[in-house]
Amino acid sequence: MTDASHDPADAAAPSRAGRPSRRSVIGWGGAGLVLGAGAAGGTAVTLMGGSEPAGEAGAAVPFHGEHQAGIATAVPDRLHFAAFDVTTRDRAALVQLLKDWTAAAARMTQGHAVGDGAFGGLPEAPPDDTGEALGLKPSRLTLTVGFGPSLFAAGRFGLERRRPGALVELPKFPGDNLDAARSGGDLCIQACADDPQVAVHAIRNLARIGFGKVAVRWSQLGFGKTSSTTPDAQTPRNLFGFKDGTSNISGTDRPTLERHVWVPPADGPDWMTKGSYLVARRIRMHIETWDRTSLQEQEDVIGRDKGEGAPAAKAREHDAPFLKAMLPTAHVRLSHPDSNAGARMLRRGYSFTDGTDGLGRLDAGLFFLAYQRDVRDAFIPVQRNLARNDALNEYIQHVGSAVFAVPPGVLDQDDWWGRGLFSS
Ligand SMILES: C=CC1=C(C)c2cc3[nH]c(cc4nc(cc5[nH]c(cc1n2)c(C)c5CCC(=O)O)C(CCC(=O)O)=C4C)c(C)c3C=C
Ligand SMILES: [Fe+2]
């Protein structure tokens, strides 16, 4: 696989083989040629002379930075998440893969094709890029990598002493019905984008680069974000029809991010500073049962009203909740920081529907994603509380689970995903 790390991701220049980049193809087609926005740039400059903030649909989100994109950055509406097993036993091969992945991710997030592109190369060889994203905008694609506990197992890659104390296996919670085939993973990549084809293209091409070194263990498509990191925008709704994400951590709330999401130097290990920990849970939602439940019961279960999203006994969505006005089993009361010693996490989940279950019911639910500074202080105590007491448990079941250490951002073109972990 071509390592494009020495090829500045400059959309203004033709690619090495003299072919247009994915983004310049867009422009030459006449729809808003995007120039500039090098791999480390902040905004994408359009031919119209304007500049498109990275938060707007279609734009490129900077890949390089102190934190990985895809955590506090705005949440686009589509997800393709993949967990991988590492099949190679060769540490050097794994390191090379992470370098190749980083180079490809830097290009794809800025709207470029992988390596030498999808066409025009050697006719005898498969192209570097699979091609289905040609002509599509960067679509706010973010690619976020994580390392699972199994990567650190003794006898694998010599990482056992580098495993963070916070990277614990999640305990079994009451009611869990986890499918091993939808759980765990040595590595994960979260691809978020406005366009599902852009997200799927990214995971497909990264899996392809990894052929012979990694194998996809499980993957999850998501649509309709169920949480937002931009509280000024309209709060999205989950498949139960309720606004979801009202009380989420805002991506611009730096003090709260520092306190609850980013790993500070004091927590250690050094290679995780400015990183975060990700919990992924596939949660089946029994929507047919929910749909036969009265509105009053639904609102009591959540602790907020369905229309406005206001907390019980309050009028507006963003009014401060009065927890005692909710039933002791209400989801919001039980998950609120005041019921969990101040625990908070940044939620970034997506709805999913994966056909039917053979009994005529939709296999649908929430692919819950939450980033936090330490799962032992956030997801684990909150989920313990919910698993024991939440009225929502009558309507949901956790069927997949994984936890990952998400390292800090890739600083520049010489940096790569996992450099801190693999360098002594
Ligand atoms: C362990 C963490 C959580 C799981 C698992 C979870 C599942 C889950 N949640 C909803 C729907 C809603 N959740 C809401 C709020 C909310 N949920 C959690 C945590 C988990 N949810 C937290 C920390 C909060 C915020 C509490 C607060 O500070 O007020 C809401 C209300 C709107 C909002 O603030 O987001 C809804 C609705 C479902 C359907 C679900 C599993 C399928
Ligand atoms: Fe919730």
UniProtKB/TrEMBL annotation:
Q: Give GO MF terms, alphabetically.
A: ferrochelatase activity; heme binding; metal ion binding; peroxidase activity
Cofactor binding: number and manner: Binds 1 heme b (iron(II)-protoporphyrin IX) group non-covalently per subunit.
Where primarily located? Answer: other
- Pfam families from the entry? Dyp_perox_C, Dyp_perox_N
Keyword tags:
Heme, Iron, Lyase, Metal-binding, Oxidoreductase, Peroxidase, Signal
Q: Where is the Dyp-type peroxidase N-terminal domain?
A: 68-223
Its recorded name reads: Deferrochelatase
Native organism is Streptomyces microflavus
The record lists the lineage as: Bacteria, Bacillati, Actinomycetota, Actinomycetes, Kitasatosporales
